[in-house]
Amino acid sequence: CTPPTAPPPRLIEWARRAHWIETQVFDSEEQFRQKVHSCLQSISAKIHSTKAHSSFWNVTYEGNRIVDKSPKKETDIQPFVNCLLSDQMLLSGIEVIPEFQTGAGDVDFVFAAQIKDVGIRKFCAEFKLAHSQNLAEGLWHQLPEYMRTTGATYGAYCVVCFGPEWISPVVKQSGHALDLFLTMVPLEIAQPEHDRIRSFVIDIEKQPTASKRG
Q1: Do 79 and 56 touch, CB atoms closer than 8 A?
Q2: Alpha carbons 38 and 6: distance in angstroms, whole number
Q3: Helix, strand and coil in the chain, % to nearest 5
Q4: What is the pTM of this model?
Q5: pLDDT tens digits, residue range 148-197?
């Protein structure tokens, strides 16, 4: 079967200019932020409702038996995340730009929207695996720098978690759950942008069926 593919940004821009897609204008940047947050919050639910967990794993089979299973790399899961986001973002008048180039590197996603009486504003989203060695540094330094270089007011730090065995040692050493760890990270090395960054944990671990629950 053909893998899911999100429409390229140039095609979306062309469709808007041809008036095939209505350009929605947000009343405020806060309204834009809330819509992006809503879309990001929906990712885990979409993965579970569509049983799309396998799209995030590298699986090796011998016949019908799984002999090896490991999480895909961040760069490998980004196109699938793009597919999960692009439809609802498109309907909301938000442009999704993956791997947006900045002077500080490539940010995973930049979302752009038209704000009433303001113009185009940007929102940065960086995705990280929960077992990444650079989990804390991405929130401490990387995302704030991306926000500065793109001029984005708001940012989101989206951590993809594959289960308790796939957690960065720095989180385990802290003694905190992943979501609490992400809340506490900005308190250690505070930057002005941290007040405008929200962290999201995206759960990839497949939930047990009712018959397998204790």
Answers
A1: no
A2: 19
A3: 45, 30, 30
A4: 0.84
A5: 999 999 999 999 999 999 999 999 998 899 999 999 988 888 889 999 99
How many other C-beta atoms can be found within 10 angstroms of the C-beta atom of residue 4? 13
pLDDT of residue 158: 96
For residue 7, give the DSSP letter.
Answer: P
Question: Amino acid letter at 86?
Answer: S
53-70 residue pLDDT tens? 888 999 888 888 888 889
- Locate 97 and state its tokens: 């730009």
- Which conformational region is residue 105 in: left (phi greater than 0), alpha (psi within -120 to 50 degrees), or beta? left
Is-contact 7 86, C-beta < 8 A?
Answer: yes
78-103 tens-digit pLDDT: 998 998 888 888 888 899 999 998 88
Kindly give, in sequence order, each residue whose CB lies less than 8 Å from that of residue 27, ignoring residues fewer than 6 positions away: 115, 116
The C-alpha atoms of residue 159 and residue 131 are separated, in whole angstroms, by 9
58 in Cβ contact with 49 (< 8 Å): no
Cα(98)–Cα(84) distance, integer angstroms: 13
Contacts with 135 (C-beta within 8 Å, 6 or more apart), sequence order? 128, 129, 159, 168, 170, 171
| Alpha-carbon dihedral angle through residues 160, 102, 182, 32, given to the nearest 10 degrees | -90
Q: What is the rounded CA–CA span in Å between residue 9 and residue 7? A: 6
Alpha-carbon 16 to chain mean position: 24
